[in-house]
Amino acid sequence: MTLISMLLALIIERLAVRSDTWQASGYCRAYVRFTANSGLAKLAHHRLGQYIWLLLPGAVVALPLYLAGSHLLYLVVNTLVLLVGIGCWHYRQLYKQYLNAMDRGDEEAGFIAMQQIRTDMGSNREQSSYGQILVWLNFRYYAAVVFWFLILGAFGVITYVLVRHLQEAVAEDDTAAYAACLRTEHNAVPCIAHWANWFPTRLFALGFALVGNFSRASASLLGYFLDFTADNEEVLAEVAMAAEPIPAESLNTLEDSSTMLQLAKRNMLFFLAFAAILTLTGWLG
Predict the structure, then answer these.
(1) Which residue from 44, 91, 149, 277 has the fewest beta carbons nearer than 10 Å?
(2) DSSP code of residue 183
(3) Could you list the pLDDT tens digit for every one of the 285 residues in the chain?
(4) Which phi-psi region, left, alpha or beta, contains residue 9 (left: φ > 0; alpha: ψ -120 to 50)?
């Protein structure tokens, strides 16, 4: 069931998902607004209560699903949850703008589109090339979501997506609601986000070594493998560049972005095949 849900969600997202209904941001904003106007605001303000607040939406969906015990319901709900979790139509549109700009030779417009992607996903790594930005985006919207789906099902997807959303840029009309929810110096989001990405980042980076230049990528990864404080985006960006070296003069060009994106796609295919093997051997449900 897990493998079927995953394949269905990935196929449908590529072919048919366009509207805001299938994007997680709207649901996350609704949860934040609901919290700001309800008793949940006290929970979100509490130092330890924040963790419960972040886990609550996933538990509300996963617990009844588990108690229902229906394989068909499990398949449908998990597919829908994963489909919403990987929905990134906004970023697809920005990437399309970047490609159109670069095709017509308008590097300034391409730069603006790529900077918009960087800003919207909350990236703080200014030195990342266009390709490295896309690798991190691919990881956050596909690899990490699929990883937590395989480990914790709908609960893992919902929790990860909520944390991801809270890290991203907040729209101007939501500022008051977010401030009401997260008005505390003990913000749990950065801590959970770091640890939610720590192992998936290194696993995905290992995949880069296996589908790219193994010796260079593995040497780069070894320096970070047991580093619990390094920025996850930095780890993935550096290992990706080691796995698929790009000449300095080609950075921030179509060659850079397309090469890195193809590397990320090969890596995803590798892990999908690995997940299929685990399912066939009984390690996954």
Answers:
(1) 277
(2) -
(3) 788 899 899 889 888 777 788 899 999 999 998 998 888 988 888 888 999 999 999 999 999 999 998 999 999 999 999 999 999 999 999 999 999 999 999 999 999 999 999 999 888 788 899 999 999 999 999 999 999 999 999 999 999 999 999 988 554 455 556 655 665 567 888 899 999 999 999 999 999 999 999 999 999 999 898 899 999 999 999 999 999 999 999 999 999 999 999 999 999 999 999 988 888 887 776
(4) alpha
Half-sphere exposure of 7 (CA within 13 A, CB side): 9
Start-to-end CA distance of the chain, whole Å, equals: 6
Q: Are 249 and 237 in contact (CB under 8 A)?
A: no
Look up residue 100 and give its amino acid.
N
- The alpha carbon torsion through 21, 22, 23, 24 (nearest 10 deg) reads 90
Kindly tell me the burial class for residue 109, based on how many C-beta atoms sit within 10 Å of its own C-beta (0-12, 13-18, 19 or more): middle
Rounded to whole angstroms, how far apart are CA atoms 86 and 100?
A: 24
Query: Cβ neighbours of residue 279 under 8 Å, at least 6 residues apart?
Result: 2, 3, 285
